[in-house]
Specification:
By secondary structure, the chain is mainly alpha-helical. It folds into 2 domains: 1-92 and 306-337, no CATH class; 95-304, no CATH class. It is 74% helix and 2% strand. The chain contains 12 helices and 2 strands, in the order ββαααααααααααα. The protein has a two-stranded antiparallel sheet with strand order 1-2. A hairpin with a 4-residue loop joins β1 and β2. α5 (152-179) packs antiparallel against α6 (184-197). The longest helix is centred in the first third of the chain and has 36 residues, at 22-57. It is globular. The two termini are 43 Å apart.
Amino acid sequence: MVFKSGKKDIYLPDPSTGRLEAGDVKTYFTTFGLGLFFFSLATSFSVEIIALTVYFISPSILESTLFSNILSVAAIYGIAFPILFCITRRLPDARPEKRSIGTKNFFITVCLMFTCTVGGNIISNFIASVLSMLRGEVLENPVNTEILGESFWINLIFAVLLAPILEELVFRKYLCEKLLPLGEGYAVIISALVFGLIHGNVFQCFYCIANGLLWGYIYVKTGKLRYTIAGHMFMNFFCGALPSLLLSFIDEEVLASGVIGDIITQAPFYLGLLAIEFIQYAAAIFGLVVFMKHRRNISLERGVLPPPDEKRISLVMSNVGMILAVCIVGLNLLGSI
């Protein structure tokens, strides 16, 4: 049963079952899905419109990597997110109780992030290889092209500092809190799927979903966004900005030349890349071992507005809003292949 007040809808569970009615759940996700649909649509259209406008004013600006990063941030967080907020603001929300995890658990969490990142990359690379064989040409990774094509300082500002803060505010804090009344499982799983799929390419999809599950779980259990922001920043720096910086000092032609003197000058950077890769895989294995050992301790609490136990997936997906959201995200993914 849904009651409307002056500012937002109030969802109340059925007194006889303590759960929301099926129709209320569909209404909830119709609104949520429409928000995601127009968020994705606004992101794409605003980028195209702004770029087209700038092209007629000064085409050379479009060649600037700084401009492309500013454009992306402005489109997503200055235009698309306010639309998402306006559509979904009437939905109830809940804030998790604040708890601390301590230094030891944060270190373990970082290792689990490596597990998610390495595991997701393995899946992405396998799927990319299959798609490359089907297409008859290599599927290019747009993330590597973008990161390697940027200066270190642009990567540091946009990928390491701004992106984690803005993404965690939207995908963990806002989306999780809008889904948390339904239960921690809904908040963690759905926000992670949105986070991964909204990136719009095969190469980022799986490790973003995996990390999204981990960061969402941390947020609903601690209520402290600083943990997920710090972890997100660290991963973007250690797995993106730092390797790209080291690669900028390496010339493959010099390495292939066999000239010892030239090779020695580049050796520290090459060894640095090997060290980063070793740390990634060692931490990922340690994180996997810890996860397998303590997986039974993972728990997701039901919310104050729990949906019915039956047909959970169909209740979430069988509505106009979520169908439209899935369609536009699917089209974005197909467009990247």
